[in-house]
Batch of 3 targets.
Target 1
Amino acid sequence: MIDFGFDKLALIGAVALIVIGPEKLPRVARTVGHLLGKAQRYVSDVKAEVNRSIELEELQKMKGQFETAAREAGQSVQQEIHSATQVFDQTWSDISGSGADHSVGYTPLPPSYRHPKKNWRLKRGATPLWYKQRTGVRRHTQSGAARVARFRPPRRP
């Protein structure tokens, strides 16, 4: 980078004052400052874009590594499952192919659980009508307009 000390800046200011003149110097200085600010923003944007692209490349590399690791883990699990099923099939064929009587030592599985299918509406329907009226249980559906008309305050003449 270019190193500007106080003496160099004073020399540049004196030359600019002589060359440009005192009337136009503030406007030129403002324009130069504005252009330098734009240049700095542009450079910072370019740096940020480069950093984002580098981070994106690193994330893509990590993604590839994770995908290969997951693929390898899936393959190893599939191999283990395959070997376990082969062992199970071999054991099953040894047991079933031995010619022994299968009815000996056979215990049937217990029946699976079935929900009793109780109907809550029946219990509710068994409630006496007088009790429903006393507790305020609704017995009939009512449309919105009918409900509004029912609960509308009475008109005063």
Note: The mean pLDDT is 83.
Target 2
Amino acid sequence: MDAYTNKPEFDFTPVPVRPRHNGWTAEKQIAFIEALAETGVVEEACRRVSMSDSSAYALRRRPSGAAFRNAWEAALDYSLHRVEEEALLRSRKGVTRPIFYKGEQVGEWRHYDERLTMFLLRTRRPERYGKWIERVLAPEVEYGGANEPDAAIRLDGGIERIMLQADGDSDEGGGEIA
């Protein structure tokens, strides 16, 4: 990545093509990869270099286009940093939602998506917020006693055994599910 412009540098050899006035020149291929890294959208990157997306995919499929394909994938991977930044921003600052009254917008409120926040925490900090924490912190519960049905339940993996007994019935009326 260039320290001054904050643009990624993709070192690849453009696909050799027959020279045409409206074709994929080496400069257009490089500009396309840079635009793809910036936008993350093939159609938008093609529009910026005045080429069709079908011709871009055809260039990508060429046997001599391995370096172009690799640069394409690297550009898409690079573009995901913007998606991550936006998700983090929405998690922290929320998203504004309009409030309407009698067909007119009279205000707005901020919606905070807790599922997004938990997803980000679990994926970015799994050692602290990962799924394992639920298994460790969940107490092991044993049911049984005079007022409760006889059942042993393990919360860390499933049901071990349940004894069913209808109220007022003797032991013959109940059944065991194992």
Note: Strands lie at 95-101, 104-111, 142-143, 151-154, 158-164, 175-177.
Target 3
Amino acid sequence: MDRRKRGKDAEQHALVYLSKQKLRLIEQNFNCRFGEIDLIMQDGESIVFIEVRLRTHAEFGGAAASVTTTKQRKIIKTAQLYLSKRPRLQNKNCRFDVIAYEYDAAPTHPLWYKDAFRI
């Protein structure tokens, strides 16, 4: 299975997992000039921007560690642009979560890092 397919499978698995945790999907794979946000979901009154990471090897740190400061800045800028185009969401609380899948051949056991980083 190629890397892109594994990544999409991990995103789909994360969506199912988070839906079971009562989060509601707003948008998937939002793209703009700054980057992409894998999942945008609502958790109660909060808007949650979610980065899904999958690592099949222990080299270079784990999946969560791969969300570097540079990647965080891109996600934050993308989220700010997303919110700027949706006035009804601008006054909502927001957070940035990471769903990490570590070293499995297939995504099975996510590690959910709520509020993984801040603006």
Note: The beta strands are 24-32, 35-43, 46-55, 93-102, 111-117.
